[in-house]
Amino acid sequence: xxxxxxxxxxxxxxxxxxxxxxxxxxxxxxxxxxxxxxxxxxxxxxxxxxxxxxxxxxxxxxxxxxxxxxxxxxxxxxxxxxxxxxxxxxxxxxxxxxxxxxxxxxxxxxxxxxxxxxxxxxxxxxxxxxxxxxxxxxxxxxxxxxxxxxxxxxxxxxxxxxxxxxxxxxxxxxxxxxxxxxxxxxxxxxx
Length: 191
What we know:
Helix 4 crosses helix 6 (107-139). It is globular and about 55 Å long. 20% of the residues are buried. The chain has one domain (11-189). It has 7 helices and no strands. Helix content is 75%, strand content 0%. It starts with 15 loop residues before the first helix and ends with a helix. The protein has helices at residues 16-43, 48-52, 59-62, 69-89, 96-105, 107-139, 147-189. By secondary structure, it is mostly helical.
């Protein structure tokens, strides 16, 4: 998806074992972020059931679990995950310090892409949930293996793919714009 959006990554050169290792490096770090967010939310007085929804950082990219503020959290997780991919794709180690460095370097673009992602996710979640209610009423007959059931599943998969693709495209274009802005800024200040 990064290449389709005009970006570049060296991740396609990784072996399957390296990809699995990379995935584990990212996942345990994100699970640490999720745990920290849940603990922080509970200690600040947020209802523990509401705080538990912060674990939905990954799923929320593809599936519309809840409306509202949770979509902003999901946008934040998407940015962090994308930065991990950016770090690995440019040959760096996957670490929180790398994420902080990339956030510092690209803070302007990442700030606006976070806003765009939040608006997109809130909007698409609203649209998807309303369409799912209508289509669910029309297509869900409670029987597995029917064409109507497959159409409903196809709708869910299509929207999930659309959500992920748009998130990656927004982040890719944002980072590319940031690199262009940085390159033009450096050329202005160099003799």
